[in-house]
Amino acid sequence: xxxxxxxxxxxxxxxxxxxxxxxxxxxxxxxxxxxxxxxxxxxxxxxxxxxxxxxxxxxxxxxxxxxxxxxxxxxxxxxxxxxxxxxxxxxxxxxxxxxxxxxxxxxxxxxxxxxxxxxxxxxxxxxxxxxxxxxxxxxxxxxxxxxxxxxxxxxxxxxxxxxxxxxxxxxxxxxxxxxxxxxxxxxxxxxxxxxxxxxxxxxxxxxxxxxxxxxxxxxxxxxxxxxxxxxxxxxxxxxxxxxxxxxxxxxxxxxxxxxxxxxxxxxxxxxxxxxxxxxxxxxxxxxxxxxxxxxxxxxxxxxxxxxxxxxxxxxxxxxxxxxxxxxxxxxxxxxxxxxxxxxxxxxxxxxxxxxxxxxxxxxxxxxxxxxxxxxxxxxxxxxxxxxxxxxxxxxxxxxxxxxxxx
Length: 406
Fold this sequence. Notes:
Layout: H1 3-16, E1 22-24, E2 30-32, H2 37-50, E3 54-57, E4 71-74, E5 81-85, E6 90-94, H3 99-107, E7 111-112, H4 124-130, H5 137-140, E8 147-153, E9 159-163, H6 175-179, E10 188-195, E11 197-198, E12 202-210, H7 212-224, E13 231-235, H8 237-240, E14 245-253, H9 255-268, E15 274-275, H10 278-290, E16 297-302, H11 308-318, E17 324-327, E18 332-337, H12 341-353, E19 358-362, H13 365-371, E20 374-375, H14 381-392
Parallel strand pairs: 2-4, 3-4
Antiparallel strand pairs: 1-2, 5-6, 6-10, 7-11, 8-9, 8-10, 12-14, 12-15, 13-14, 13-17, 16-18, 16-19, 17-18, 19-20
Helix pairs in contact: 11-12
């Protein structure tokens, strides 16, 4: 370890006392995992005043931030489910809680956080910071719909409570919405107030296979008929485990409502549907959600329902269609694979011409840093992001790949 690193480590131990959790990564950089929001604030305030650069890290199972830094601030010490009020369908958890831990804690009280992001062993903080929603986004909403409020520590060490039971925002911003999907650029999330649902009594998955264009038409027909499946997902052959494209519909709710909706879906479409046994359905969705981790890069593209075929055509032309999923009702296409920076830059440019934004969800750090996470199709968005960072992190204490202009 260098003398500078050693000095930082000694300073951190002096700040945090005997409860400090301080380790060193493979490169010898100190990693600190405070157990409280106040300790996180102390670390960031000190880093800001000393000119230290800080990486924010979660469980490390989805996206790794590897830019130059003096220390890493980890959420692993913030691992408590603080409160579950099942009767009110709300819960408060620390950001380092792993989703499976949360699921088990909620299930004991008949509650459920209806969020199914890709990846495994994701922490709540990671899911919120990256806004990586899964198939359930189509019918149940995105990450912001399931977050009531946050506690965020800014790069200067200010503790900000936003939404939930306390509403205290900085400079008039709705920090809950701003921090959700910000990739840690505006502060370190330490606590999340969640909106829950009751565990559904019925959960049915229907699968159909065929040509991509045909399945998109069938999915559009389902939505045009006024049906609202909890998930309506298009999967490429590699993801769906078939030699054809797969259209997967997930119906969640009471027994009568799921039965009636299943009859309506089948009556609306001309394709043949197969209802999956519960255990096979669970394996199907879990396999699809793990699939992106087989590849180094994952991007998501936004579009409208009518532009879904065009969006996938763009991906096919500039990259490939080996690992593609599309949440039809949400207008979100997710691609995973390998690609050079220039090919993704060209794809972003072409997608911008038809107003389809592209977000880099995960990638090797050199690619993240060169491209930035966000690829907006409106002029001036990069300048806006830069202004927001000036408000929340004027000294650029936090390492975040938002692009060259920010």
